[in-house]
C-alpha cells in the first residue's frame, strides 16, 4: 500500500469522525489527484468465479483500503465514486461487514435437547450467548465447539445456516454461539483487526476463552477438547483464539477468514481482505481446518492459503463434491501442526454446504460443518 495514501486515509478518517467530512473529502481529492485519479481505480485480483452476495462493486489498487466493504473481483465492475467512499468512512463501517439481509430464523430443537439464552461476564467484559446441548446424559458430552458468527449475523441465524447443532447431536458436542454487540462493533463483527483484541489476556480473546473454559468446566470437558470455528470476521477471530490459547483450544476451523496478525487497524484490514501482502503473526499454534471459496470477493482466497500456512510441496487432492470442484491440501505447517485447506471453486463469501435458510450460506459444495467436526473429533481423547 502506498504510504502517502495510507497516511491520508488515516487523517481523513479522523476528520470524518470529528464531524468534518468536507475537509476529509478535500484531503482525499488532493491525494488522489496527485496520483492522477479522482475515482477509485480498479485492480483486478486473480480470484476465480463470481461473487455470491447479490451485488458487484469496484476494487481499488490503493484507495480500496478506504472502502468499508472491500471485495475483490476478477472482472472490472463499475467504479465507486469518491463521495461513496467518504460516506462509508463517515459511517465508520468496520471491515468484513456483508450487506446480505440477515435471516430471522431459529434452529429446530429436538426433544430433550436445549438451546438456551445465557450471559457470560468477567473482568475482561462479557457477551450474551446461545448454548446448544444435545439430548442425553451429560456423560455423553465429549467436546465443546465455540461458533463465531460473521458480521450482521446472529447466533440463531448462524446456528441455522451452519447446521452445527445437528453435528452436535450426532457426536456428543456442546455448541456455544457468542453474540457480538453493536456497542462493540456497529456491524456486529468480531474485532479481529484491532491489536487490543488479538492476544490471550485482553479484549475479545480473553472474553471468548473465558466463556469457553466456563462451559467446558460445566460439562467436564478437558482442555484440548475445546474447539473454535467461525465465518469471515468470526473465522479470523477463531484463528486468533487458537493462536492465543493453544493450551485451551485443540483445533480451529476457519471459513473465509484471515490469519492472525493480518491487520492492526481498519486500513490494514481492508488491505488484507483485498489480498495485499500482510505481516501475519506466524504459523497457527494448533491444528486447523481452513475453508475458502475461490469465488470469494469479500475476503480474497489468498487469505485461506496464508492462514493454512502449508508448504508449497504439500499434497493436494481434487474431487467434485455436490457439483463443486474441491481442492484439498493437507500437511503440516511450520509449527508442525496438521492443517487441511479446502478450496472450493464457484463458492463466494458463504458457508459451504450450509442451509439456505441462514444467511451467507451456499448449499452446494462440501459440508464444512461436518468436515470441521470430523477434524475436531480426530483430536479428541476417548472419554473415561
Largest sheet: 10 strands, mixed
Alpha-carbon Rg, integer: 20 Å
CATH classification, class level of the largest domain? Alpha Beta
The H-level CATH homologous superfamily of the largest domain, spelled out, is Alpha/Beta hydrolase fold, catalytic domain
What class, by secondary structure content? alpha/beta
Q: In CATH terms, what is the architecture of the largest domain? A: 3-Layer(aba) Sandwich
Number of helices: 10
The chain-level mean pLDDT equals 82
Keywords summarizing the entry:
12 strands; single chain; Rossmann fold; 10-stranded mixed β-sheet; 384 residues; two-stranded parallel ribbon; alpha/beta
Question: Your description of this structure?
Answer:
The chain is of the alpha/beta class and 384 residues long. The chain folds into 2 domains: 3-91, no CATH class; 114-377, Alpha/Beta hydrolase fold, catalytic domain (Rossmann fold). Helices cover 28% and strands 20% of the residues. It contains 10 helices and 12 strands. A hairpin with a 5-residue loop joins strand 9 (324-332) and strand 10 (338-344). It is globular.
Amino acid at each position: 500500500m502506498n504510504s502517502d495514501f495510507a497516511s491520508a486515509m488515516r487523517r481523513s478518517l479522523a476528520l470524518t469522525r470529528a464531524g468534518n467530512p468536507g475537509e476529509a473529502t478535500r484531503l482525499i481529492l488532493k491525494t488522489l489527484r496527485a496520483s492522477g485519479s479522482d475515482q477509485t481505480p480498479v485492480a483486478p485480483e486473480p480470484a476465480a468465479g463470481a461473487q455470491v452476495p447479490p451485488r458487484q462493486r469496484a476494487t481499488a489498487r490503493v484507495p480500496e483500503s478506504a472502502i468499508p466493504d472491500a471485495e475483490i473481483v476478477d472482472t472490472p465492475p463499475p467504479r465507486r465514486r469518491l463521495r461513496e467512499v467518504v460516506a462509508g468512512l463517515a459511517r465508520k463501517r468496520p471491515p468484513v461487514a456483508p450487506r446480505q439481509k440477515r435471516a430471522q430464523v431459529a434452529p429446530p430443537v429436538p426433544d430433550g435437547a436445549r438451546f438456551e439464552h445465557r450471559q457470560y461476564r468477567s473482568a475482561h467484559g462479557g457477551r450474551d450467548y446461545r448454548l446448544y446441548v444435545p439430548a442425553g446424559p451429560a456423560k455423553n458430552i465429549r467436546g465443546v465447539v465455540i461458533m463465531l458468527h460473521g458480521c450482521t449475523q446472529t447466533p440463531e441465524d448462524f446456528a441455522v445456516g451452519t447446521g452445527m447443532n445437528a453435528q452436535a447431536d450426532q457426536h456428543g458436542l456442546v455448541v456455544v454461539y457468542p453474540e457480538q454487540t453493536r456497542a462493540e462493533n456497529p456491524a456486529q463483527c468480531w474485532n479481529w483487526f484491532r491489536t487490543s483484541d488479538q492476544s490471550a489476556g485482553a479484549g475479545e480473546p480473553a472474553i471468548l476463552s473465558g466463556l469457553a473454559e466456563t462451559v467446558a468446566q460445566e460439562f467436564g470437558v478437558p482442555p484440548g477438547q475445546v474447539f473454535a470455528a467461525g465465518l469471515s470476521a468470526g473465522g479470523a477471530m477463531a484463528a486468533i483464539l487458537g493462536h492465543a490459547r493453544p493450551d485451551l483450544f485443540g483445533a480451529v476451523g476457519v471459513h473465509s477468514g484471515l490469519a492472525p496478525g493480518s491487520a492492526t487497524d481498519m486500513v490494514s484490514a481492508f488491505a488484507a481482505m483485498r489480498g495485499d501482502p500482510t505481516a501475519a503473526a506466524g504459523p497457527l499454534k494448533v491444528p486447523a481446518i481452513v475453508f475458502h471459496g475461490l469465488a470469494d470477493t469479500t475476503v480474497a482466497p489468498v487469505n485461506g492459503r496464508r492462514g493454512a500456512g502449508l508448504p508449497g510441496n504439500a499434497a493436494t487432492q481434487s474431487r467434485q463434491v455436490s457439483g463443486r470442484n474441491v481442492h484439498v491440501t493437507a500437511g503440516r505447517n511450520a509449527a508442525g501442526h496438521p492443517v487441511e485447506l479446502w478450496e472450493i471453486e464457484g463458492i463466494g463469501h458463504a458457508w459451504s454446504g450450509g442451509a439456505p435458510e441462514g444467511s451467507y450460506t451456499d448449499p452446494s459444495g462440501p459440508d464444512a460443518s461436518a468436515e470441521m467436526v470430523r477434524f475436531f473429533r480426530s483430536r479428541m481423547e476417548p472419554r473415561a
